[in-house]
Amino acid sequence: MTEQGEHPAQKIKEALAAGRARHEIASLPEEKLLDAILEAPDPRALVRAFPQEDFYFLIHKIGPDDSLPVLAAASEAQWEYLLDLEAWRGDRFDLESVERWLKRLQEADSPRLVRWLLEEKKDLLDLYLFRTVELRIREHDQDPSDFGEGFFSLDNVYYFRPRPPFGPPEALEDRKKEREEFLPRLLEKIAEVDHVIYQDELLAVHGLIPAEAEEEAYRLRNVRLAERGFLPPEEAVGVYQRLKPEDLHHRGRKRLLTEEEIVSKLPVPPFIDGHLPSGSLFARALASIHSAGVLYQLQAEFAGLCNRIISADQTEIREPDALRAVVEKAAGYLSIGLAHLEGGEGCPPAAAARRIEAYPLIDLFRVGFGLVMALKWRAQRWKKSSWFEAAAGLPLSFWDEAWVGVLGGLLLPRPQYFDHYRAGVLYREFSSLADVRETEEELEKMILVDRRLSQIEIDLEKRPGQALTYKSLLLTLWARDTLDESASKQRPTMVPSLTREAFSQLHRQLFPDPPPKDVTRPRRIADPVKTSFLTWLARRSNQDAQEIGEAMGGIFELLFSEIESELGSVAAERLDPRYIRLFLVES
Questions:
Q1: What residues contact 77, with CB distance under 8 A and at least 6 apart?
Q2: Of 351, 354, 554, 376, which Cα lies nearest the Cα of 448?
Q3: Under a CB-based contact definition with an 8 Å cutoff, are residues 308 and 25 in contact?
Q4: Distance of CA 68 to the CA centre of its chain
Q5: Which of 347, 489, 514, 543 would you call most buried, defined as having the most Cβ atoms within 10 angstroms of its Cβ?
Q6: How far apart are the first and last CA of the chain?
Q7: Mean pLDDT of residues grouped by 10 in the chain (587 residues)?
Q8: What is the pTM of this model?
Q9: Is 525 within 8 Å of 510 (Cβ atoms)?
């Protein structure tokens, strides 16, 4: 129910505006962020208004040890979310991390922490105390000195001492000192609340079955995170299950919530402002939606998709940059799926918006990722039966740097696009249908070259070294046959080579004019030379020259451009075999 006189749509708009305002605060530089929160009219209300996911990033952006005032203002639900993410490494209880965060929370608000642990987080408290407390119960006639050094008591009955920590030797002394300071203070605060509860807690921990307690605590933690989209990794990985476009329509459409239902789910979910790539088709589709209610539901759905990707990839997201990478990945595959369904990159944003309103975002993501996976499976099938691997036993480096990058990216467990540092990185996630099409074209070129090589009778007995590439193999075979008529009638080996004198002769045929004075403008290879290469390849592979030219002309044009760039400005007498990459020349 909404307040009387306030329309649900208005409340949703206000919630979205409040979310953007919180994002502006969270986007401030680290040195200004804490001051901006503390100088707010009501810092406690501001901190608690942050959704739990945003609160987590807020703490790490400020710095865990500098964020004590923010931790003190936070709600117990925000504390719980923080510990749910920090207390576990995989499915293992991370004692060191738990101890650090409990210490920070104690410094922030000790009385509230103790009440919260006893009333709501007893599973976490039990596991922590079991791992850190060594307990002795004194009989009425027993001397405490029998227990050994380091034991102390609050009631002369229950004696305890901190267990020594485990870890790297260089950090053990500091951790031991911190535990000896923190643990007694924690137990003293529990005893101050209720001494009977303090004794019961020590007895319960003394008889704890750790494997069962850890499993139950992990189960409860997973239930809480699942409500926010963080499924266990073995379930979340289903986000990468391929979904064919034709199957999307059989899965049914999603139901858009009414404005009243949306209001009941406020506040707004984690912000994506500033993280969503503005040029992506998904972002442009969102921008074309004017209904605040639909926009809210899509934002919540997108946040759930991102959380599921985080769980499936088992990545730690502590910084905004790490979150941005996940958001860009989700938006990229959504854009790929939308563009494919709408017939290409040029589809109108309004048409893509209708798709995201009609179908679950996770299904659209799976459609986009499925296109890349289909390409990966095609590459794997081809590689297994290819000439270069199955027949010749050559390594991936045979395909030279650019194609090795493309093929290597496809063969990763989760395929990636070979960017080759155009955007500053070697590999990145696929972000558009153009990335998929470009990679598909490069793979098709490799398959064509591999098929053509399989049609040439090459003696495979003599194995080449790592330096052999498809470029040097083809060009050297062609050069050898061109320069030596008798060689053209023999079955070539896989490691043909040219003498230095023979290559100088070939160089003069390729570049008959004198070297240019301006080395930035190398000489060009005449068309008849390129035609002779095509004719040679057709003869060697017993194929039609025109068909080869139509299918592979672009590949060979780039290959000869590379020869021009590498050798076109060098005089024949100055050639050095050590620096010749495109031909195999004897040194």
A1: 52
A2: 554
A3: no
A4: 31
A5: 347
A6: 85
A7: 54 62 75 87 88 86 91 95 91 91 94 94 92 87 79 86 81 84 92 90 87 92 86 87 86 67 52 71 90 81 88 82 88 95 86 91 95 96 94 91 95 94 91 95 96 89 72 92 76 81 90 80 89 93 91 93 90 85 87
A8: 0.81
A9: yes
Question: Distance (Å, rounded) from C-alpha 550 to C-alpha 547?
Answer: 5
d(CA 92, CA 85): 12
Alpha helix (H) residue ranges in 227-360: 233-236, 245-248, 259-264, 281-287, 292-313, 320-341, 349-358
Q: Residue holding tokens 């750790």?
A: 210
CA distance 355 to 122: 46
Alpha-carbon span 11 to 17, nearest angstrom: 10
Amino acid at position 182, single letter: F
DSSP 224-266: HHHTTT---HHHHGGGGS---HHHHGGG-PPPPPPHHHHHHTP
Helix, strand, coil fractions of the chain, as percent rounded to 5:
65, 5, 30
Name, in order, each residue with C-beta under 8 angstroms of 139's C-beta and a sequence gap of 6 or more: none
Select from 560, 496, 509 the least CA-distant residue to 530: 560
Q: At what angle do helices 52-62 and 320-341 cross, to 10 degrees?
A: 140
- Write out the E strands in 73-171: 88-89, 92-93, 133-137, 152-153, 158-162
Distance CA 92, CA 449 (A): 50
Q: Domain spans of the chain?
A: 75-226, 233-369, 470-579
